[in-house]
Structure formats: structure tokens, C-alpha cells
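TICKET #2291
ISSUE: user wants both folds in one file
ATTACHMENT 1:
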Amino acid sequence: MTVFIRVLDASVDEKADAIRTALTAPHVSVAFEQAPEKFTAIPGSPFAYWAPSSCLQIFTTSEPFNRTPRLVVSTNPLNADFRFARVWWEPKASTLGGAWRPWAKGGAYSPHYYDVNTVIAWSDDRQSYTGFLGTENRPLERPASVQHFFRPGMTWPRRTQGGLGIRAMPAGCIFADKGPAAFVEGDGAEDLLALLAVTTSTPFRYLVALQMAFGSYEVGVLQRTPVPNLDKTDVSTLAVLSRRAWSLKRWLDTHNETSHAFVLPMGLNEKVSGRERSVVEREIGALVLQVDDAMFVLYGINADDRTAIESSVKRAPLNEGEQEAESDDESDDASEDDTLASADSFSSWLVGVAFGRFDPRLATGERAVPPEPEPFDPLPSRSPGMYPEGEEPAERPDILVDDEGHADDLAARAISIAERVKVDAPENFRAWLAKEFFPLHIKMYSKSRRKAPIYWQLATPSASYSVWLYIHAFSKDTLFRVQNDYVTPRLAHEERRVESLASELRDGATAAQRKQLAAQEGLVEELRAFLDEVKRVAPLWKPNLDDGVVINFAPLWRLVPQNKSWQKELKSTWDALGEGKYDWAHLALHLWPERVVPKCAKDRSLAIAHGLEDVFWVEGTDGKWTARKTPTKSVDELVKERTSPAVKSALKSLLEAPVASGKSTGRNGGGRRKAAAATEGGDA
């Protein structure tokens, strides 16, 4: 036997005293007697001298995780998330589950349950990510482990601060390199749930940790971790506990409007469900303890060893996944915070209802909350809180405005919805919409390093006037309607007010009256500049949601001067588009066909993206693709078909236009002050 001394937790100044104490009193808690040859029982023979002997023995008496009927697998890294991945609310709902499949790519720590919030472009015909290239410009026709895609199973992020967080993975998902997967033979829900209980238990997590030198939960580590033998009674008992824990964790997500589980915002959600968050969290904690009790017995770990294990395995709090922030690239949801103030959560929901996205009948009782799905059911294309397919409002607006008295005034519509559900609208709601909502909305709708707001605020520099667009209702004609039906009439109205004020104040105007006139003139100046920018971009704007929110929004970067950080991001994306960095995008082909089409003849991936593969490429009898010596249609002909003189003229005007420098008047008609200049423009 060898005595080992462990003083990792002692400070630098205390280590020497701790070692001396251990040498004179070898039975203190930092001293461990262990036979080194026992370390060979653990895969990789780590120097785990602190591990109880009973745990070392488990590696020889229990079968490893990756043994029939269980399987642990991963797949190849994508390395092109911006191109091929989206958050699930970006594409059209009709394409979810088809061209866009749920993609379990890791994320934050969250055992039992975690919403799969990303989707990936997928081709059933190719059995591959649409247009994805492997090495040497060769499309990867069959990703690694593709035969296990879409099976119900379990997944986890390879690296998180909270620890190993294995959770249910619904059927229909593609898993990722950063989000490996585990399955059971036959895909039985009860067997999966029982295994979920095993893998989220303290003893299993401890056995995993014994094998790790660093905090990365690689496939190999999980494959080698022992799993106890379970009889039918064990499976049934553990499955019930696991199913309940999943259900409660999912309920905690039903107030999060970006989740597939969303029902209603905080406050309304608790009222309708009759549940309290604190009560639910306590029940989850009790279930975790019940599972641990069963697992320590099944692993054959005695009470003393259990105490040692529990003291070394710290379980992260339930909301750890919402708060963690890591610098490692393995963490896909760094700094995500889905927990909003109750008032903000409610206000955001009101906006969603005003645009016809969320269903207020759930709050009034006119529609029952849909039944909870099973843990491994395929993800829906819309959350329970949205209108069911076919029940959407007859007129779902694509445009609402900040224009008091207008029939399409967003604030007025939202306040009327608050009255309908019998909840007071927040104070200063109109000012909140103008100044605070859009930055909050961008934060709420940012996941997996993607920023994807679905309600777009186009505004004057002072946000004294705003137009709001909803991406799932707008079309290529929406900006023309903004121009003709909203901004032009409002500008004409404000110009008449200037004339009226000027006429009234011609003789003997007071300082206050002159200030009022100056503010009105400033508002008119801002509206004229805003209208000019809309007129420039409307002829060339052709949204395609498959490109993603940021690329669709990029041409409108001049129209968000009220939010400098977002304007900077859009301008950067717009510049990258102009430089040819995103030539896979539909927008790039629409604006620069003379540049994109010739590239398709040299880059098969781009040809696939733009539906030109068969024009420029041919598959040989050996299954390899080569460029055609003579395309089925000439490059010049293809470019001509895709070139619009009106679009080219509008693009030239947009690129050459100076950046507007409207005057900021403030929302209450304060004195004139120069608006902060927008980001410098120029050729992209």
C-alpha cells in the first residue's frame, strides 16, 4: 500500500502545513492509502489515488456504457456554422423537419432536458448537410454516424462549467461533434429514460470524472464508463423518476418564448398552470436524490464511500445553463440568459401577439394548453404558445408602426391585448418600445452565437418614429409598402404641422414656441432622411429566410441608427457580402450574379447552394464529381437571366449614397441636437 497526500484545495501558503499534518497524522482526510496496481482497473490507468476502492472495483465488475444494447457515437465537425446552421425560428415553419432539421450541437449545462434550438440544412437525397464540403472541395456525402441520425436518444455538450449534463434528444435530430449522442437498441423510451437516470446520477458522473484529465466529456470517456446491471424493475423505477424530472425541467422552459416548449410569459404561465417555480425546483431536487439513492445501491457503493463521492461531485444549480459563460469554443451558448424580468417577458409576448405569432387565447382560457409531449417525440415546428397551424389570424401584419393614432400602431395594439388578458400594460410602454425593446429582443433571440431578431425596428436616429417588421410575414414588397403606406403619409402630415406652426409663430414667437418649431423641423428632417433610405433599398431587397436573419437584414443597416451596436454588425455583414465572403447566400446571387455564377463553375458547393450543380458538374461512373467541360448553359446566359437593371441601379445608388445625418428631436419634442452619424458607408 502507498500513502498519497491530496492538498489541492489548500492555498499556496497552507500547503506545507497541510502536508506536515498529513505526515504526522496519516489518517486525516487528505491522506489516502491505495495500492497503485488498482489504478489499472480504470481505463487509461489515471492516478486516481483518492477514489474509494469500491469505485475502482466497479470498472471490473460492471459492463462499459458502449456495450450492446447501448451505443455512444459522435460525428464529424461542421466548421461552417454560419453558413449551414440557423436557430430554429429563422427559417419558415414549413421547412422545419425537412430542409432544416433539429441539430443537437451541445450548448449549456442542463441535465434531463434542454431545448434543441438550432437547425441545420439537410438533404434527404444526399443524406448529407446541404452543400457541405469535406476535404479537397469534395462534398461529404455521408457524415460520420449518419445511420444514427434522427433516432431518439441522449446527448450532451462536450464541455460546460456545470459538469456532465446528459439530456433527452428527441427523434428527428441530427447530433454534432460538439453534441455527441447515445442510443439503446430498439430505441425504447423506457430503456432510454432509465439510462438517462443512470447517466445523470452522482455515481455515474463520478466514474466519468475519474477518467478525465481535463473537463471535456469525450465520446471515449463515456463509452468506457461502467453501467450497472438493471433488471426490469430497476428500469421501470428509474424511467418513472427520469420522466418526471424531464417533465419538470421542461416546464421551467415554458416561459421562455424562444423555446419549443413556450406556452406563456412569466406570471401568466404560473397562473394558467397553477405551478410555482420554487415548488417545481424543489421537486426536481428530490427526484435527483431518489435517483442517487437507487444508483448508489445498484453500483454497490457503501454509505462511507457515498459521502466521499458526494463531497467531491458538486452538482450545478438548476439554472446553471442560463448563467454560465465560458471562453472555450466547445461552449455554444456562452452568456445566455433566458430569464427576463417578468414585465419584460410579458411586454415581449404582447408584441408577439400583436404580430400574430403568439396565441392570447391560452391566457384567456378560450384555448386549452396543449398536452405535454413525450421526451423523445419529434420537435414541433411551432411552440404550444403559438397559433396552431391553420388557426392563425386572418390578417397577420408584416408591418406595425410607432405612430400614435394610426390603425397599425404597435403600442395601441399591445395595450388592447393586455386589456383582453386582464393584465395591466407596463407603464411608459410606448417609450419602452421605442428605446428598450429592440436591444432586449436581439439579446433574447441570440443563441449558439447567432443573433436572429424576428421583429425588426427600422427607425429614425432619435427613434421618434419607428417601423416594425415581422420576418415571418414580410415579402419583397414590404419595404415598398413601408414607403408608400406609412412613411410618406406621416412625413406629409408632419410637414403640414411645420407649415402651420411657422404660420402661427410668424410674429412675436416666444422662446418656447421657437423651440417647438425647431423640434418639429428636426422630426421632418429625420423622416425625410428615413424615407430616402427606404426608397434606396426597397427596389433591391428580396428576402429569403434560408439565408438567415443577419444576411437578410444587412442591406437595411442604414435604417437602424437608433442601435449603434446592431448597425455595426449589419454593416460588417453587408461589407462581407460585397466582398464575396457569403456567395452561397441567395442575396449574393440576387445582387451580384456576374460574380457568383462563374464561381459555381469552380466551386461545386456554391453550385449546389444555387441549384446549378447539374449545369456545371457531372457525376462519373465511379461516383466522383467533376466539372463539365461544357456547361449545359453558358455563364453569360445564366448571368443575364439573373440580372435586373432595376436592382443594379438601386444597388449602385445605395453603395454611392452618403450616410444620412438626421436631426435627433427626442420623443417629447426636445430641442434640436445633431444625431450621431451612422457608420461610414462606401462601396462594399
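ATTACHMENT 2:
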Amino acid sequence: MNNPNAAAGIPPLFRQFLEIEQCIASGRLTQASQQVDALLRQSPGLVPALLFKAELELAAGRNASARQRVGQALAGRLDSPRTAIHLLRVLASLSESSTMLEVVAQLPPPMWDSAKSLAEVAQELSVVGAYEAAREFAEAAVARDPNHPPSLYILATVELFYGRLDRAAELCQRCLRWVPEDPGTHWLLSRLRQPDPGPRIDRIRKLLDRGPDVHAEYWLAYALHNELHDLGDFEAAWEALERGCRAKRSTLAYDPKAADALFDALLRWTREEVERDDGFAGTDLRPVFVIGLHRSGTTLTEQILAGHPEVAAGGETYDIRAQLRRASGLHYPGELDRRVVEVRDRLPYAKIGEAYLRGMAWRARGKGIVTDKLPSNYFNVGFIARAIPEARFIHLNRDPVAVGLSSLRTLFSHACPYSYDQQEFIAHYRNYQRLMDHWRRLLPDRLLDVQYDDLVRDPEATATRIARFVGLEFHPSMLEVGRKREAVATASSVMMRDGIRRDRGSVWKAYARQLQPIIDALGS
């Protein structure tokens, strides 16, 4: 705060909140914790302080104590939009989507103070897959201020999920009129298949030539790759992709040796463990987990299965991870932590299953079967199988070269840290193969392998096989993928509006020379 007169006008308590936020943002967690503890000694029920404490507990890996603080905050008073958004952000970190929806149901869009607040609510709802509510808040944000860039951006993102590509593009262009250098908006626009890419390419190249920071660099490099790829300039597109991959990889704390150790630990699951009768049974809701490597066809499979009148698409959820964090008391990034695997014999599987199914109820929308399409739940198959005896797994298999290229070409948020380097992808793929072979041996009747090529070559036969595996008969609506208007919030969101495409398996051939490491290691 450079202006002392301005600082003097800020209430002391609010100034303390700002200082705590700055400490957390800059990594000075001990200092932040000391200030929060002092506030809580003075006012034990102060909701903003409780939420800061929860954030600090999560940063320290303590899930149980963070949840305790959030529970106390929920019993208190939300004194401002800032506090309400803080609560939603912490709940999103805990994957508590049902509670988030309960909160926003009591605070509909007209009750919020600004476009900024509405856009922030929309963003947090989008994080947990509550896209209908996110769209409502994003629309309200743009209505409140048609020139507010964050509002335009989040609404463009949600419109993309719903397949309204021209509207999303128009919102992106409006956003860039106000923030012409915003890298995320350039990247989002590059995904929308808009005509006349020349001016967009020139604009992105000029921004890259300025030497942006590493985060802006990978957004812009991926945007440039997308535009050049769609144009058919594959040599230049690969150069841009390599730049984007290098920049993104430099920001990640991915440890291949730790990944190897996690896979090794998972291979110690036994059939006796996964078949032990201590899970949660007796529910009317049956989950189907669609798993496989990212970019292997899991989105298409979910859309086909959810085309059945008795099936709801749950989308990509981190609800299983949330329950494993809760049961173990540990908070960790990524899909799974080896410490959880090591204490698996002490976990309360019935509670895990019951809490998971209760949290998925709103996604099921009254239907008897709900999908959970987080591809990387292949890490969690043992936990899921034991906690939910009714759970079934559909595993997608696709040519590793096609998956490798598609993974390289996808700018993930936090998933797939191995996907920006061909050698790291190869190592991960081999570990993944070992693990899937293990799950097949342990769960031969609960896991169905589906070949992506079969799915696109003969979708009716493959859809029939999938339906019967989950106890249903084929329904013609399963093949109406391109006509659906539900949100599809994955890297395949644009392609899903094309229906079932048969031309995606050969995309890698345009980059065959550059993909030689993957081809040599994994090609047939």
C-alpha cells in the first residue's frame, strides 16, 4: 500500500486480512499463521480468520483440521461478499460441491455487489463442475458490467463447455479489447475454430517476441500451436508446441521417481483386499467410473453412456480424491499420495463409499446410474472397488502414439505433469500399463476394456457392449453425441459437438518425425 492516506482509510481488521492474504500469496506461511492465530484468540468465531486457518492447514497437508475450521466457518456469519467467496474457494479446494451449491442457493446473483464478485463465484462453481450455476452467475456478471474482462472470460469458458463456440469467441474478442495482452484469452480463443487465423497468429507472435514471463509464455505458445495446427502449418506448429511444453514443464515440481514409487505401492493391492466386505452397499445410485489415460476417449465414452435415458453424466470429479483425503486426514496435490496407499488397511471404506455417493447425488439428477469420468481414477481403482461394491469401471485403450501427441498438445491445468516431455510420457505409460494389468487380474468381472478404435469404427456395437456391462440395453440416443447440450468441460469439449469422429486416430502422422521417441518406444 503506497499511499499512507489510503491505508489510513482502511479499517484495521480489514487491513489485517489484506496482510494475511499477502503473506499466504508470497509463501510466508509462518507469519500468516501467527497473525491468524492471534485473531482467533481474540475472536474464536471470526469467519474470515477461520477460513485463513483452513487454507493454512491445507497448505500444511492437514485435511482433517482444515475441515474442522470450515465447519466452524459454516456455522458463522458471512459478513461480506469477500468472505462468501473465500468460503466458496476453500470448499472448492475440498471438493465440497454440494455445500457450495447450498451456499449459492441462499445467495442468488442479485444479492452480490459487483461483476467481480459474480465472476469469482462463477469461477469457483466451474472448478467443481457445477456448470449450470456457473453459467447463471457468469451471465449475471456480464449483465452487471459488459466490459469487465474476468466476467467476459469466465462466461466465454462456460459457453465453450456448452458448445456455443461463436458466442464464446465474441466474448473473447470483447475481453481482448480491454486486455489485449491477456495470454489466457488468446489461448481460449485459439480453441474455438474461428476463421481467418492470420491476424490472431501475428498478434500472438508479437506477444511472444516480447519475452513474456514463463506462465504467459506457455499460454501464448499453446495458442500459437493451436492456430498453426488448424492452419495445417505443422512444422511451425510443432516449434510452438515445443516452446509451450518446455515453458510449462519448467513450472512443475513433477518427480518421476516419486511417480514410480506410487505405482509400485499400488501394485501391492491384493484380490483379498479389494473383495473384503467392508464397503458401502444398499444404495440406489450406481457409479460407473470411466478411466484411462487423458486423451484416450474417456469423454466420448461418457457422452455415449450418458446418452442412455437412465444414466447421468457426472463429468470429471475429484470426489474420490476428496474422500480419500478426508479418510486419511492428509491433504495432497495430484491424484493420490503414496502415504494413503500405505495406510489403506486402516481406512473406513463404508464411510468413504457413503460420503462419495451422497456427494454425487446432485450430479445424478434423479437417475439410477451416474458416471465419474476423471481418467486418472485408474490410480484409485482399489479404493473405489472396496468402498463401493456396486461400482463398475470402463477402461479406454487407445494407440499410445495418438494419446502421446494429444497429451503433448493439451495444456492441462494441474493434471498430467508427465505429458510435456516425451520420455516422461513413455515412462508414465509403461507404469500405467503395469497398473491396469494388475487391476484386470484383481477385478476381472468389474472392469470392461474398450478399444477407442472400436468405439469410433462401430459405435453401436461398442455402445451395446458398454450398456450391457452396466446392466442396461442399448438405446439409440446413446449415439446422438453431437446433439446434446449438456456441458462438456474437458479438452474434448469442442470435438464433442462434432459427434462421433473417425478421423482422430491419424492426426499424429503429421508429426511422425518429431514423435519418433514415442513411436520407437511404444508404437506397434
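RESOLUTION: both attachments delivered.
EXTRA DETAIL ON ATTACHMENT 2: The beta strands are 286-291, 311-312, 369-372, 392-397, 447-451.
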